[in-house]
Amino acid sequence: MKKLLSLAIVALFSVSAMAQQVDLRKKINVSGSAETEVTPDIIYISISLKEYLKDGNSKKKVEITTLENELFKAVQNAGIAKENLTITNLSSYTAVVQKKKNPDYLASKQYRLKVTDLNKWNAIIDELDPKGIAYTNIDSYDYSKIESLKKELKIKALLAAKEKATYLVQALGDKLGSAIDIQEINNESFPQPMYRANVMMMKAESADMAGAPPAEIDFKKIKLSYQMNVVFEIKGF
Fold this sequence. Notes:
This is DUF541 domain-containing protein. Residues 1-19 form the signal peptide. The chain is an alpha+beta fold. It has helices spanning 2-21, 64-77, 95-101, 118-127, 146-171; strands at 27-38, 42-50, 52-53, 61-62, 85-87, 108-115, 133-142, 174-186, 194-195, 217-218, 222-236. The strands form four sheets. The chain has a four-stranded antiparallel sheet with strand order 5-6-2-7. Strands 1-11-8 form a three-stranded antiparallel sheet. Strands 3-4 form a two-stranded antiparallel ribbon. A hairpin with a 7-residue loop joins strand 3 and strand 4 (61-62). The radius of gyration is 32 Å and the shape is rod-shaped.
């Protein structure tokens, strides 16, 4: 009997605790959004340099060090910090071993350059030996003020949700209370760079390409879109 009484008391307290946890507040769930598009102002370019033979003569090889020094000088002349040029392919250092095995081996190195102005890139490419460039390409791009822009859009989306909730609740003769829950939905879009005519900026494997202008780059803008789902409490007047 005592056990049954104890179980009944425990069950009673459990039901009471569950009743206390039920949220009986009147609520409204709304969403607000904000979006914008920005033009990229940070561009990452990959560059591949490769040794070549002058007139096909193995005794007249243009060494990778010569091509590399040309690249360093062109970057410096363009007013770009040396930290913005990095080597991306460390395997190029195996060239010493390969050359010992095969004197005709043509070494190559790959680099990554960060620029904020494509006009500077055009000036750099004009100073380089076109026959020593295997290819150049745009890897990716970014926007320098992206973080502050994200913050601004999130706040705008949140305020848009509050504005919507306010006029909806007021239409029912009630008053909007404080936010109970906030959820963020991220819809960022970073499209890859597109090339008109689907060509690289420059490919100098053929002598016919020497002096050819870079292909036009068709940048797609970075689109930032945020949605905030917010639950507000509804209060009566």
